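Morning, I've got a small favour to ask if you have a moment. The fold is given in discrete form, as structure tokens running alongside the sequence. I'd be grateful if you could look everything over and explain what you see. No rush at all, and the record is pasted right below.
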Amino acid sequence: MRPQKADDQWSEVRAFGNLHEPLLNHLPAHAVDELRLAAPFYDPPARAATAIVTRMKPQAVRVAVQPSIAMFDGAALARAAAPAVDQTFTLLSAGRAWHGKLIEWRTPDGKTAGMTGSANITASALLMSTGQGGNCELAVIAPHGDGLFPSEGDPQPPSAIQNLRSTPPAGSSVSASGPVLLGCALVDGTLMVELAVAAGDRVVIETSPTGAPGSWTVAGAVPANQQFARLLVPELTGGAVRAVMEVAGARLASAAVFITDSSRCRPRQDTSDEPRLQLRHTNRHPPLPNPLRQPPRITNPLGQPQGLRRRRQRPHRTHPPRRPRIRPRTRPIHQRRPTARPHQPPAMARLQLRQQQPHHPQ
């Protein structure tokens, strides 16, 4: 997938997966000045650490482990770092858990870069692809500036880690030949599971509401030589799924994968009875008065409601000025048109005519 326009600011950032190719193939194959490793899990034989040192040929190796929570074999890590001229080990304290996975290196020209992501420094995460039975991982390679290696603790010689070894959890183990659960989804009450590679034996599917130890229950099984399965399970409100199988008397469990519920991912279609800011109504049901939208009925000193007074004090709309009417000039008398009505004598003439007429007493 390529964008229409690439941002050159992130040209040195690359993202990789291990579906078809191991993540180890994306690490530099040339010699580096310093190699730094930090992760909560190292495979006990240190196969991944040995392969990284062999590929990158560092002059110095720095390894950080947290003995309180990490899984590692100190003697195996010391042997993996032995080809380097300088080997130091940092023992992190038991306070805050360091869960980041880091493979960092410094090149001869002084630049620092590294790989971060979901992959631990184990054989199933770095040396194998998902198709080969490894984990499903995603990692990013980018410049690291001043570096991301933990600065806590003092560097120790290899002798300080020789006798340190973590105890794997009882009841289960993780190996390259164990099952790998690629994904699971809940569709209409049916749990659909998919394995990365079909196993030669029957694979048991277990579910848990939280993924805590002791909460797993058997939901079904994937038949031998099959990669997909559909299981009828009761309604689950979220939880975890894992695949379990027995190989040579050992119980192997995959990493927990959380369920994707397709019905809960759909947009909501039902209407809520919660109050809304806008009332929707029809002609049959007239709208109810909203007290938040009515003006306050507070009486001012003049005895009028505040709302009425506010409306009366609104400024009147202004109209554009009208053009003044120009009245026509009055014409002289000799230029006026004669009117149709008969000539009326002036008032004084009418009075004289009335006095000259004879008066007949009754």
DSSP finds five helices and 17 strands in the chain. The first strand starts at residue 14 and ends at 17.
